Target: Tetraspanin
Amino acid sequence: MSKARSTMGQCGITSSKTVLVFLNLIFWAAAGILCYIGAYVFITYDDYDHFFEDVYTLIPAVIIIAVGTLLFIIGLIGCCATIRESSCGLATFAAILLLVFLTECVVVVLGYTYRAKVEDEVNHSIQKVYSEYNGTNSDAPSRAIDYVQRQLHCCGIHNYSDWRNTRWFGESKNNSVPVSCCQPSIGNCTGVLTRPSELYQEGCEALVVKKFKEIMMYVIWAALTFASVQMLGMLCACVVLCRRTHDPAYELLVTTNSYA
Model:
């Protein structure tokens, strides 16, 4: 009976250690993925920053990059602690995993919070950005609007007719919108309003909001996915740690192996 219990304990330890090593490899991969997602948010924000006055929108991205960097360190600690069967290393590994798990819970909460604020942010700033448009590449708001209209295939705030209410439209006096409103499949498009079929029909406000809500969802799902993996890592580390500390069969196994 004692031998069967010892065999079961050894099997449980071996399984937990195998899972831990595998999870540490996942943590290294996760570190790269999380850093990529955070960098993607930063790059996208840089292209759309004129539509967001609140820089706190970037907080989830900052946290998720920090978590990705920490995950790489965690993977290194976890591998060393698992292979060396170090009680101190496993305890440190489990404690750091708990900290990262709580941090990712904060990321999820902030992601949902700022996802809800995106629409208000865009509504508040987009009118100002369009009113500052002057059609020159040297002007940052103008470049931002032209970029967004080309990338998102949109024109104006709600539709192309919104350009009639801008200062640029009144000053140009040519009854046209910027050529960035032109559909790429149309040749020789000048943006003239007498040919509206050549222009993008959808407004940019809704598409900018949709774009950033999608990005926030990427951040949220990434945090939730890796938080669940970390829970499994904490569980396995605790199993190995508890068995190593309290299970005589495990101590006997280590002693036998050390003399083998």
Notes: Residues 1-10, 248-260 have pLDDT under 50 and may be disordered. The helical segments are 2-48, 59-84, 87-131, 140-152, 167-172, 204-246, 248-259.
